[in-house]
Model the fold of this input.
Amino acid sequence: MKAALEWQIACGADESILDAPIDRTSLPKSEEQPRQAPVQESDPDIVAVARNAAAAAIDLATLRAAMEAYEHCDLKRGAKQLVFSDGNASARVMIIGEAPGRDEDIEGRPFVGRAGKLLDLMFSHIGLSRTASGGENALYIANVLPWRPPQNRDPKPEEMNMMLPFLERHVEFVDPDLIVAMGNHACLALLGQRGITRLRGQWKKALGKPTLPMFHPAYLLRTPEAKRETWADLLSLKERLGA
Ligand code: URA
Done:
């Protein structure tokens, strides 16, 4: 088995493609054919487990530990590690993205790949940075999902539902003045709405905080002409911070 695995790695296979690993040594003979992992239903008990675990956390460190210990999201088994957050927890602005990608999965921090570099550049133009030490100029960054979906596929509704109690508690602990919902999936999780082209730039309320939907930087990399609207959104954020 080890030799077979090493051969796959030598061939360049470096990612899982199913949501969860299959232990083929324990499959009955009739099931040895390749198959997709069973579809994960949205189970209210699983959400309740997440809600209780999140409620028991007393700070960011215990919340992180509670997420590490949560076993009901299959993404955990395909990801290299939990991607919890980055930046300054006393920031006035909390950015909430979708889910880690390949680079984030490797590094264990959100938005460190190409999209993350653009995100840093965008916010630097209004004087905000994840490395700033004072809360005034600082950013705090987290994602709806803390584990990378295989092959960067879209998050499933049941995955977002089960991880939402952790995100809600995360926002409670950071207690930012403003939230940026980065892209469609963050809008769906936080506002229950999709359609980022229509939503972007309109201030909403999510988890009791003024929330600004913005285009995801990965979208801006593919659609540079949308940077004009993003600049308007950044200015709106800066103005709101000043107010
Ligand atoms: N895209 C996201 O939404 N989050 C990340 O952390 C990286 C890319």
